[in-house]
Amino acid sequence: MNILILHGVNLNMFGRRDPAQYGVATLREINSRLVELARELKVTVGFFQTNHEGALVERIHSIPDENVQGVVINAGAWTHYSYAILDALAILRVPVVEVHFSNVHARERFRHKSVLAPACAGSIAGFGVESYLLGMRAVCGLISSLD
Ligand code: DQA
């Protein structure tokens, strides 16, 4: 089972953003935790981060040609307004789980809405690094239930 983790805009700055919202872990540390969990779950995991919306759209376009069974995505601020990323995710035939480090529902109103939600099986927000780990467990569970 191969899982792809997609990190969107500004998420390379984890560890240097507002610690009250985003803690102190860097993206590298978050990815390491995901690699550890992948070992435990006996799956493989790949990562992609970009600050360019078109690059994320093109990365999503290539997924159907790859041996990828599930996707975990934190699109950062694009979550709240990118219909281009929604349309790209909607092409996929594998489960997609949306995750957020912070509790977007307890923050500014514009963060309450995810325009990506229609293309996602579900979303997990507010648990910090654990949101990603829960997201990976969720997508693996979904893939197993499809077998
Ligand atoms: C975020 C929440 C978004 O609203 C914000 O724009 C981010 C990070 C999160 O992981 O909490 O950049 O996706």
Number of helices: 5
Q: Give the strand content.
A: 15-25%
In the CATH scheme, the class would be Alpha Beta
Number of strands: 5
Compute the gyration radius: what is it?
14 Å
Bound molecules: 1,3,4-trihydroxy-5-OXO-cyclohexanecarboxylic acid
Structure, explained:
The radius of gyration is 14 Å and the shape is globular. It starts with a strand and ends with a helix. It has one domain: Rossmann fold, CATH 3.40.50. It has helices at 19-22, 27-41, 53-62, 83-91, 129-146; strands at residues 2-7, 44-49, 70-74, 96-100, 122-125. With 147 residues, it is an alpha/beta fold. Its EC number is 4.2.1.10. Catalyzes a trans-dehydration via an enolate intermediate. Homododecamer. The record marks 17 as: Transition state stabilizer. It comes from Candidatus Desulfovibrio kirbyi.
